[in-house]
Amino acid sequence: MKLSLSVFGLLLAAILLSTTSCSEKREIEYDLCHHVFFWLNNPESPADRAEFERGLESLLEIEAIRLYHIGIPEPGTAGRGVVDGSYTYSLLVFFEDLEGHDIYQDHPVHVKFVEDYQHLWNRVVVYDPVAK
């Protein structure tokens, strides 16, 4: 099942609200976010999960990333019909602009991540919303 943009919006809102107090609301200062959902081949394998998490953390070395969140599905929301918790991991990163995104995409660390870890996943879905 694909995540609709409205579901993506709800996920993004949940992430942003979880990092601010109830009395504080703020807009993210960065124009472009890159949200990647991964489905691992063997999600029950602790070794595969540990290896994949090391790979995700390696991406954080890329200087164009301004904010990030590495996540897993929240089991407490799984009963809601609009929630797709079928993925294994998500990576949400924010960039100042399209140039930052392009630096990330072509960065040797990102290229190495794909080469070294793609054997662990069987599906990837990416959303690249830009601030309106």
Distance between the termini: 26 Å
Total beta strand runs: 4
Q: Which architecture does the CATH hierarchy give at level 2?
A: 2-Layer Sandwich
Q: SSE order, as H and E?
A: HEHEEHHE
Class by helix and strand content? Answer: alpha+beta
Overall geometry comes to: globular
Helix count equals: 4
Domain count, please report it.
1
What ranges have pLDDT less than 50 throughout 5 or more consecutive residues? 1-6
**What is the strand content?**
15-25%
- Helical proportion? 25-40%
Q: Roughly what is the average pLDDT, rounded to an integer? A: 87
CATH fold description: Alpha-Beta Plaits
CATH class descriptor: Alpha Beta
| Gyration radius, in Å | 15 Å
The largest sheet, given as strand count, sense and whether it forms a barrel, is:
4 strands, antiparallel
Oligomer: single chain
Strand order of the largest sheet: 2-3-1-4
Description:
The chain is of the alpha+beta class and 132 residues long. It has a single domain (5-127), classed as Alpha-Beta Plaits (2-Layer Sandwich). It is 36% helix and 21% strand. The protein has 4 helices and 4 strands. The chain has helices at residues 5-18, 46-59, 98-106, 108-117, and strands at 32-40, 67-71, 89-95, 121-127. A 4-stranded antiparallel beta sheet has the order 2-3-1-4. The longest helix is centred in the N-terminal third of the chain and has 14 residues, at 5-18. Residues 1-6 have low confidence and may be disordered.
